[in-house]
Every structure is written in structure tokens, then in C-alpha cells.
Amino acid sequence: MGNTVSAAELIATNIVHAEAAAAAPALPKGHPPIGDAGKMSYGGGAAANPPPECPMHNKDRAAAAVQKEKPVLVSECPVKHDDSDINPLNMMPPMNQNPAPDQPFALPKDRQVSSIPKVTEDGRQEFWVYPSQQMFWNAMLRKGWRWQKDDLKPKDMDDIIKIHNANNEQAWQEVLKWEALHARECGNPKLKSFGGKATEYSPRARFRSWLGYELPFDRHDWIVDRCGKDVRYIIDYYDGGMVDDKYKFALLDVRPAMDSPENVWDRMKVCYMRWKFQLESKVKELTN
Fold first, then answer.
1. What is the maximum alpha-carbon separation in the chain?
2. Residue among 157, 168, 160 at smallest CA distance from 13
């Protein structure tokens, strides 16, 4: 992305959810096969002309799956609206693949299947599907964003989509780390719904700001289905600086909401484990 701040980075800071994948996660059981065309790994890099979504699939197969098989829920950047046609599961309007009247260039309409399983009424294994570049453009316009001459180029939109998708993939991997505490109870958690709360800072984010730290530029609340039990997760997105070649952009603070005794206990256990690990590491340094 270079050493200068591109238009894609500036827009991503204000619009895109954050994510910084530490490693490429394994695909979940039952996940559709990954194609070679337009391939990009979760945490790392992109091949030439990849489709604007993650994980990578053959774009013809993905498009056919969306159009001919079962309906999918689109994990575009969720935002609250008062419109009656908003999907309550992702807080998004009906998908719009039509070019905007004043759009300066054509955008791809390919969509990509994510690694994030979703809840289905009949129990079938399905995964959330990311928006195409065209759908993302239309979503930004709906939020009030307006492009200016030479403000964006096709490459910028491609980068924005990759950042957006990488953000969501990393958020899910962080959720799975917490869900590992309940692996015996449920080995197949799924994302049920989510919504953006960019203007509603979490108590933890506010407390950090009182200590002099920056406020997050975005917040999401994800509802995870733990084999029939709804668990709410809070995700705060912090500016992580420049976008690198792996499309790492922001720092995530992912944790279960303190709205149940079980979630509070999970956070206490993780806090203890972190404290214990840090203490053991310091002891080793002193004794070596």
C-alpha cells in the first residue's frame, strides 16, 4: 500500500470494520472448497485480480451459489437504519447490485463466501457471504458518503473490500478463542446476527479513554449461537496505522459482554490466565 495514506485507507478508517489476522485459520468443517481463481489468504496477501471477498472461491461458482441455491445473508458493514426493509440480522437494506447514477467506474459484483458459519432454520451448514464491491459502494452512499472526482480508483475499492473482509475474518477468529472455553459444551458455534454501534462506546472503551487511550473508531455487537444459547460479543475497533501487504489494518478488542454470570466468569478466567502467563514469563527471564 506504500508509505502514504491512500484513499482506501482513509475511507477504511471511517467505514470499514477492523481486523488484524495473526495467522491463516483453517476452514471450518463443511466449508465450500476454495478455488484458485482470485485467491487471497485470511491474513495474507492477494493474487492478481482476486474477487473482492474472503475466503477465496471460484467467482463463477460463488455467483451461482448466491443466485441459484439458497438465499444468503450479506455481511456488509452493518449500520442502524429506521427503514422498515432493514434486515434485523445484519441491519442492512436489501442487497443492491445496481450501479449508482453518478458512479465514475464499473465495479465487480462478485461475492465471496466467508469462513463464518451462520444460523439456519433447517440446520443446514451455510456461511455468511460478503458484499461485492458494487454492494459496498451502494452501502456507503446510503450512509451519506459521496465520492469526489479522483477521490477513489478501482484499486482503492478492491483494497477496501479486502480490508473489510479481513477484519471480519479476524473478528471471528477472536470469537472462536473465547468459544474454545466451551468446546465440550458446543463444538460448532455460529454467528446469528450482528449490528454496528459506532456512536455507542462500550464502558471499557470509555474507561480506556479516561486513561488517555484513543477511542475506537467503530464498534460491533455480535450474537453468537452456542448450540442454542445466544452469547453477545462486543468488538471495539482501534486504528492500527498503515495497511500492510496482508491487509492488516486495525486492532481488535473482542470479548463477551458482561451481561451474564457465565460471560463474567469467562472474562475472569481469561484475565487470570493472562496474568499467570505474564508472571511466568517474567520469572523465566529473571532465572535465565
1. 68
2. 160
Least confident piece of the model among 32-46, 59-73, 80-94, 224-238:
32-46
> Across the chain, where does the E strand assignment appear?
113-118, 126-129, 190-196, 218-226, 229-239, 250-256
Residues 217 and 18: beta-carbon distance below 8 Å? yes
Strands 113-118 and 126-129: antiparallel
Cell of residue 241, nine digits? 496505522
| Euclidean distance between CA atoms 157 and 134, whole angstroms | 9
Contact 1, 242 (CB under 8 A): yes
Phi, psi (deg, nearest 5) at residue 18: -95, 160
- Is residue 106 pLDDT above 80, yes or no? yes
Q: How far apart are CA 118 and CA 129, in angstroms?
A: 10
User: What DSSP character marks residue 132?
Assistant: P
- Which three cell numbers mark 54? 474472503
Secondary structure element (H or E) that encloses residue 10, with its range: helix 7-15
**Grid coordinates representing 251?**
486492532
pTM (two decimals): 0.65
